[in-house]
Structures are given as structure tokens and as C-alpha cells.
Amino acid sequence: METFTSTLQIGKESYSGLLRCRIFEWTKLSIRNEEKSACVERVPVEEIVGVQAGRLELLPKKRVEESETEFTVLYVRRVRGGQRWSLGHTVFTAPDPELRDRWVQSLRHSTEKYSEERPKNLLVFINPFGGRQRGREVYWTQIAPLFELAGVRAHILETERPNHARDYILKSDLTGFDGLVCVGGDGMFSELMHGLIGRTQREAGISEHDPEATLQSSSLRIGIIPAGSTDCVCFATVGVNDPITSALHIIIGDSQPLDVCSVHHRKRLLKYSVSLVGYGFYGDVLADSDRHRWMGPIRYDYSGLKMFLSNRSYKGTVRFQLAESQSSNPRDNTRCRSGCMVCSESTDRLCGFGSLVGSTFHSLSRASLSESQVSSCSVSLPGEWRSVSGSFKAVNLTCMSSACPKSPGGLSPSAHLADGTADLILVRDCGRAEFLKHLSRHTNNKDQFDLPFVEVYRVTALHFSPENNEEEEEKDENEGMETEEETEGSKRKKSSFMSGLCGAPPSRSKWNCDGELVAHTAIHARVHCQLIRLFARGIESSHGKRRGSCLMYYK
User: Fold this and answer.
1) For labeling, which of 81, 169, 211, 366 is most exposed (least CB within 10 Å)?
2) In terms of C-beta density within 10 A (0-12 exposed, 13-18 middle, 19 or more buried), how is residue 259 classed?
3) What is the model's pLDDT at position 1?
4) What's the CA gap between 330 and 419, in Å, rounded?
5) What is the C-alpha R_g of the chain?
């Protein structure tokens, strides 16, 4: 489309409006009609939410005033000093009605041309019980009005029981929907993810219970409106837990591929994970906190302190497959950001050069591709297998940084969202003071891996075997973390005072899989590259500079 320009007014001030390629900008004019270069606002047309003929007022409620020369543009505005977005709203006045109509038509045409992946119909799941029970209020007071302004239609379903959303996705007709949205926390997102992956494999005739199966990715994206007690996935992929920001990412049709880790026991799928698969400390904290749900979110702090004081460790063997690519490592001090080259190179490597043969593990790559390319990428990733045995305070596997407001860097600050790998963190048996040093470094800028009892590897698959015999392993399905008599193979040093305070330690821990307990201790975990897509773009880097009233916008 050719360049379109004219003078425009905002209130009593004169501006030079310019629509060129994929940018709409307006520059303030001086009294002599000269442009003031320091007073310009630029908005990519992909981030225009809507264009309305006339004067659109949003407060105290939506109202459109008819006008022959005015038009209103709604767009993404970045809030200074962070990843938060807000809805920009500017009313322009054109010199005459004909120019007004041309501006409206040109802006709408450009927005449609460069925003082909915007959703028009969404299936929205609201969890009215999770977190602080504010999902319903968040959606109807903040999100629904935005969807209406953007012309997005939404079919609403309030969940009534655990796994309601997962079962609905597995059984219902999803024809006509462009995406799924959850209003809740990480547990709600997990339901949507399990339902969507399960449905896609069933339709493709793929068994989820086969640990070596190449999983198919879906063309549907998942949107997350944070309204839970923990919103780790949203924070790690958007950079902030803010419902308005997440809604705007959904509206403009952003797409962020995400690696998923499958967790199997023998030939049985246990769970999918995108953030944490943790054994030892984090498993113990979750198992203990489940006994204190009446305490609310504070139960995690209570159980965390309790498990820290208990100073437990568990014997086992970890076998893992190292990542083949050497383009990054867990300690390179880089950060996965929007447009990440490591993740982009992974997409090119997996999809651009056909399939490689010779490994028992296959992964499906799914980036920001067209729907016809979704199932065209399949490749095997051979890598060296290693084995580590010993007594571990924690065994953690994460496909992302797992950052959250309390831990801005997360478990592994340099982990990537979509490179087909996960970071394996092994914390060996150590004293309370040493372990506290490791935990405290999650909240500051110090390297949490620069400790003699901590090891970190970038991997694509993992096997974990506890020291317990098979009889003890079979008990995992039916028992919680109950006190057991220690066997010769599981004896550990322990303080009698702390044991009396926190109870006798069990001989094995539980796996914490994205906030849910897994029944078995012996597991096989494997990373599936870019298996799902979110309505997000990753955390943006702060490259733009602001001078005066100049607002710079970047894709």
C-alpha cells in the first residue's frame, strides 16, 4: 500500500499523520507547521486494536459520538518501566469528511493485511474458584469490554470441577474457534494444555502413552488471563502478570511457541509440563501443602519453611541426554526474549533441513508457522547420555526460566522457551546453610549454580530411578508421603530435634509436575520442541528510548 499522509488535529494541537508500510505515526507541528522530531508517536499497525469512525468515549462507559471529521484509534501503549501494556486511545480530527473516511479505510485495511492471525472467535474458560476467587470479576470487568472493542467474539464456560476444561476440550466440537483462553492460574492453563494436546494426538491417531511417539501440534493457540495464586507460565512468557496486557496480546494475535515436557512411567503418560518437574524439595513442599489447603496461599510459605528445616535428601540415579546444539548453555548469562535467535535457529534447524535419522527420541517443531506447516516438521535429536548417582536435595527439570514476581530470574534464568531443550538442575545433599544460599540466589542477581553442590545441564530427555526397590515403587500409586521405617539403603543423617519437629522423613519424595503431584517416582521425561503456541510474544527487550513525548514502539 502506498504512503498516505495529511494534517490531523488532536484537540487543539496540529499533527502530521503518516501511514507508511506497517507504521502509523503522528508528529506534532509547530506554529509554522514544521514537524517537531522529538514529539512523534509511532504504532505498528499490527498493534492497532480498532479504528472507529466518530468520537469513541470509553469512560464512564462506551459511547460513540457521531462526527463527520473525527475518528478514534485504539492501540497498544507500553507502560513506562516494564512489560505492562495498556489501551491507548486517541481521537483525531481530519480536515474534511472525505479525508476522515480515507483514514478509517486505510488504517482498517492495513491492520487486516498485517494481522492475519488475529482471533475472531475464542472459547474462554473461567475458573471461579481458583487463586483468590477473582476469575469471574477479572473477566467481566476488564477483559470482556476489551474483546468487545476489538470485535472478538467469546463463548464463555465457567468450570465447575477439576478437569472440567480438559474434559470439555477432549469431547466437544471446537470447529470455528481460533483459540482457547483460560482465566485462572497455572492449574487452569495445565487443564487446557492437557486437553488440547490429548485431543490433537487422538485425532492424529498417536498414542500419548508411547514415550517415543512424535507428538502432533495443534493450530489452536492458548491465551492466559492471569487470575490465580501463581501465574508462572504467564509471567515467563509475557513478563508481567497483568490481565489487560495478556488480553491485548490475545487481541492482536501474538504467537509464541512453547516447548512441552512429557512425563511417563514405563508405557503410561503421567503429565505434561512446561515449567517445573521437580523431585525432592519442591515435591515435598507441594505434598505437604496439600494437607493444609485450609490455610490458603500462605500454605506454600509454611510448607516451604517446614521442608527446609527438615533438611531431607533422597538417593537415586539420574540419566539424561545432553542437548546436541551448542548455541547456548544454562550459564551463558543470556535471556530468552521476544524474537530470540536461539529459539529461531532451533526452528530453522528442525524444520528447514528435513529429518535426521538415528535416535529413539523424536520431537515435533512448531513455531510461528502457517497452519499448513504445523505437522510438516519431524526430527530426531541424538545426544550423549550421561548418568549421575547420589543423594539429592532437589532434582529439577524446567523448560523455561520459571520466573515469577518473587523470583524474577526463576529456577534457570537462561532457559529458553522454544529451543527444544530443558535445564536439569541437580542439588546434591548439603547443609541447611548451603541450601539456603542456593535458594536465596533465586531472588537476587547472584549465580545460583556457582556452588559446589549444584550441577546444571541442558538436556532433551531424562530418566530418574530412586534407590527404593520395586515393591516400594508400586506403593507410590496408593500412598502419600507417609512415614516409613528406613531401610539400610535409605538411611540418612538427621537432627533428632528437627525430626521431632517435622516428622520422620520418608524414604522417597514425590514429583511436582507444574504444581500437581505425580504418583510414580521412577519416571522418563522428554522435551517436545515447540509443541504448543500461546497468545504471547515472549518478554520484550528494552531497546526503545523515550525523549520528551516521543513514544517508540517495537515488534
Assistant:
1) 81
2) buried
3) 53
4) 12
5) 26
Measured in whole angstroms, how far is the alpha carbon of residue 3 from the centre of its chain? 38
Q: Which cell goes with 160?
A: 465447575
Phi, psi of 456 (to 5 degrees): -140, 140
Rounded to two decimals, the pTM is 0.86
419 is catalytic: no
Cα dist. 55→68, 70, 102, 335 in Å? Answer: 10, 6, 16, 43
Among candidate residues 101, 173, 186, 423, the one labeled active-site is 186
d(CA 163, CA 107) in angstroms, rounded, equals: 42
Give CA–CA dist 534/367, Å, rounded. 10
pLDDT (tens digit per residue) in 110-168: 999 999 899 999 999 999 987 678 899 999 999 999 999 999 999 999 999 999 999 99
Q: Let me know the angle formed at the C-alpha of 168 by 225 and 246, rounded to the nearest 5 degrees.
A: 10
Record the cell numbers describing residue 398, joined without a space.
524446567
On the CB side of 109, how many CA atoms lie within 13 Å of its CA?
Answer: 13
Instruction: Region of 402 please: left (phi>0), alpha (psi -120 to 50) or beta.
Output: left
The interaxial angle of helices 164-171 and 186-204, nearest 10 deg, is 20
Is residue 464 within 8 Å of 279, Cβ to Cβ? yes
Could you tell me the CA-to-CA distances from 325 to 215, 296, 331, 519 in Å, in that order?
21, 43, 15, 33
CA torsion 206→212→217→222, rounded to 10°?
Answer: 110
List C-alpha distances in Å: 454 to 48, 138, 428.
47, 41, 6
Q: Are 342 and 328 in contact (CB under 8 A)?
A: yes
Grid cell digits, residue 516: 500437581
Nearest to 312 by CA among 432, 461, 482: 432
Cβ neighbour number for residue 99 with a 10 Å cutoff: 17
- Say how far apart CA 308 and CA 302 lie, in whole Å: 10
Render the burial of 379-413: b for 16+ CB within 10 Å, e for the rest.
bbbebeeeebeebbbbbbbbbbbbbbeebebbbbb
Which three three-digit cell numbers place residue 471? Answer: 515393591
List CB contacts of 176: < 8 A, sequence separation 6 or more: 121
Polymer length of the chain = 555
Q: Give the C-alpha separation, 426 to 33, whole Å.
A: 65
